[in-house]
Amino acid sequence: MTVIPLSPSTARFARLGAIYLPVTAAAQPVMAWLPAILARDFGLSLALVGSLYLAGQLFNSVLDPVVGALSDRTRSRFGCRRPWIAAGGVLFTGGSAMLFFPPDSIGAAWLVVALAAYYSGLSLISTPLLAWSGEVAPGYHDRTRAASTFTLIQSVALVAALGLAAIAQKLQPGDGRLQLTLFGLLVLASAVPALWLTLTTREEKASPLTPALSPVTSLSPSAALRAVFGNALLLRVLASDAAVRAGQGIRTTLLLFYVTFYLGRPEWAAGLFLFQYAFGMLAAPIWQRIGVRLGKRNAAILAEVLQALINLALVLTTPDLFWLVLLLAFAQGLTQGSGNIMLRSMVADVADKHRVDTGEERAGLYYSVFGLADKIGGALAAGIALPLIAWFGFDPKATNTPQALDGLLLVFALGPALAHAISAAVITGFSLDADQHNAIRLRLNSADDPALQPAE
Fold first, then answer.
1. Is 214 among the domain residues?
2. CA separation, residue 222 to residues 69, 71, 219 (Å)
């Protein structure tokens, strides 16, 4: 039987989330640098890269519900989540090695296999890990604390990766192979120790009032679909998160092009990322406090509205107004991951409500479809943004017309602004607040502890 501590420490959250260090260190380069480098240095077309990203992520996203459901039902001496995270770590590391150390004659087949291993590994890591974090942190605000700790780890990883990109740009400007090599060394050097820290996170004995996980019943595909699509609260979180990820993905995918070609400042290609994410390390503790003060729904709405306005303001930027670019990057850093923190934490609350209503433990399933929403949002970003700027006439290998550069700016600014606005609108109807969740936890405690059962 899996047990969970009543009030885990932040240090335990940090150890549990250690695997986010290599995962995030790989994610930013894969999304932001790899498409441009493959197109510029290896001769692959943007349309091909965008299509393969879209196909690969959508294909591999079908693993999320499978992994989530199976991890809910897994019973082993190592627990129900650890075996999946361990297997995912192996796939992720192998896929990352292929992506960051490609052959000179890389083709579509190599990229498909590499992306499949990479994204499959992420599925096996992220879904069980998120479900495990919800079990480790049973309290309403504990979950916000766990999510903010994970976000802080991700911010540190981003700054490390972007620092290497800046070093590569300084040493050999425009050398894509050097950038990929440095990214790959960071990911591979941190993957094994981080995976060990996550897998060896110690679990304390439960307190008398801490609920044990309920028995997991068999779940057919049709029952799984009903458990997901019949849950209006979950659907709101999923739709809001997909919109967030789409907006973040468009910005991440196009930022390198925006800085290099629209602003005409290739020397800032890595520096602007680094500038933003350095301030982003302050975002997690700030938004943790806001989430506790306002509640998760209101904090998520505020975060997404702010991000929509920040991205919308990018329409006003020009090569001569670089101070405005820096100001908006600073603001973007302070709101970085803000909506993600709240939405990720909400999934565990929704799983608690489902469990108290039905007696079924479905945290793994719910986090798997949350991961699916993440991937759909990211896939839409790469699969739509890259072909769209190509349709406007933008080509990183040619001299671009003013119209093509204006098209790049509009997609870069308006795409994320619209996505974040949609996210805010969708999550407005989320009704599960702290008081309701506290009542749910009391019912779960009472149901799981025989000493709290009413006398016959």
1. no
2. 13, 18, 8
